[in-house]
Amino acid sequence: MISATLLNMLSKFSVKEYKEFGEFVRSPFFNKNENVISLYDYLKKYYPEFTGPKLKKEYVYSRLFKGKAYNDGFMRTVTFNLGKLAEDYLAYINFRKDDLNRGINLLKELNERKLEKVFLKYYAEIEEDINSIQYHDTEYFFKKYELEEQKEIYLDWSKFKQKDFKNYSEKTISYIDDELTSFYLAKMLNHYRFILDKEQYEQIKFDSTFTDHILDYLLNKDDYFRNKIKIRLHLHEVLLIKEKRTEDYEKLKEILVTGVDFLSHSDRYSLHNILQSFLIEKSFGGASGLAVERLELYKICIAQKLYAASEHIYFDDLMFGNIVITAIAAKQFDWTEEFINKYSEDVSPENRDVVYGFSLARLSFAKGRFEDALKHLNGIKTIRHIQYKIPVRNLTLMASYELGMLTQAVYNIDSYRHFLSNNKDSLSVIRHERVVNFLKFFAKLVKYREKDNPAEITKLAAELEETNNTIEKSWLLEKAREFILN
Question: Which of 84, 98, 110, 100 is nearest to 24 (CA)?
């Protein structure tokens, strides 16, 4: 078969891109090898699926080089060259997307060639473009730094002619202290809050000694950089995750609500996730009644279209499930059903089956339709993400219990224990404990129900009351109390 890497790349091209790539391949500036052009033309017939026996190397060779004995090394070379051109084309596409980057690169070359008049013309245009950027994110600071750097280089070789730059001021010579430092601080804080957030779900080793020194500086010694919106945002995100203070939550929630005009989609998407994580942790810490607050955040998220990491990809599958669970906990059944029907087609095709099936199962379970819940769960074909394997297993156990299928529940408990043992390293310590606690209490609930032992279930309920870090705690308590009262 022709290189899978090459075919996979070509399959991701849009129709317009594949056609333009053909012009790229035919351009003598990029390629003078006629064999590579022939291979492109041959593969075009099988775009975009690129499947079938006619894509085997030997067959393709026989069609391109009729009457010649198969030469594997030569075929690999032609394929490799087309692959390199595909890579170059993708790099070119990415390059032309960023006008500012092209502009900065142009200034660098004009400086190199000492083309003063053209440099000054484009410098003014690029400076205006950078100053008009709406979101002052890390790339804004870095572009400002690069622009000032080119200005300094120009002033050096032009011997301070000062024909167009009137003042070689402190602003010019301190650009490293300002723009580059702003870039670094925003980038560093953004990465740190990502690591801290990730640590809540996965086991990650990270030495934060130097980062904590910078935090101390920003909080106790700095009165300039922390007032920049991007740095202030990430600083409060880090503080919220590390110190769990409600005042940081309120500040960040206000930024989320009002930040459409000065924060990018990506910033607000990440911010929303951090706010949700804070509320989730509070709920597992014993706080109650947070479902309504969480649902309010999700509605803000939906209104701002923050349900994907970027504006042009699918609805985040984990967020979809969490929205369903939260809305059900807030007793918003009609809203939940409307949400599922409206947005399920926006989930990626690879994960739509599990997301849609789990969502319907969760809603059916909440309405007391336990057989329907199991039917939806059993209809799920493939679960790729471990974050869905856990809630699907939990809900399957709960529905089995509600239907009195205790033998099946016991079998699933044993299977679940093996699953957790095999996947322990994929979960953070806190999250692993959370799941283990659920399974422990569920197993005891089934055991004491089978033995008709209300005294032990009473003890179980008391122990459960004291164990906050437990998934589905409210349901477990409800079933324990229900058994005691009956």
Answer: 84
Among the listed residues 9, 10, 41, 5, the one whose alpha carbon sits nearest the alpha carbon of residue 23: 41
Task: Give dist(CA 228, CA 182) in Å, integer.
Answer: 8
Phi, psi angles (nearest 5°) of residue 211: -60, -40
Q: What angle do CA 90, 144, 252 make, to 5 degrees?
A: 90
Return the closest-CA partner of residue 351 out of 387, 390, 312, 378: 387
Please say whether the beta carbons of 280 and 434 come within 8 A: no
Average pLDDT over residues 218-246: 92
Distance CA 213, CA 430 (A): 27
Q: What is the DSSP string of 312-355?
A: TSPBPHHHHHHHHHHHHHTT-HHHHHHHHHHHGGGB-HHHHHHH
3-state secondary structure 183-225: HHHHHHHHHHHHHHHHHCCCCCCCCCHHHHHHHHHHHHCCCCH
Torsion of CA 11, 13, 16, 22, to 10 degrees: -80
Helix axes 291-303, 246-258, angle to 10 degrees: 30
What predicted TM-score, i.e. pTM, was given to this entire model? Answer: 0.68
Distance CA 16, CA 230 (A): 37
pLDDT tens sequence across 157-173: 876 555 555 544 555 55
| Nearest one of 414, 327, 389, 405 to 362, comparing CA atoms | 327
Per the CB < 8 A criterion, the answer to whether 441 and 432 are in contact is: no
- Bridge partners (DSSP) listed for residue 315: 347
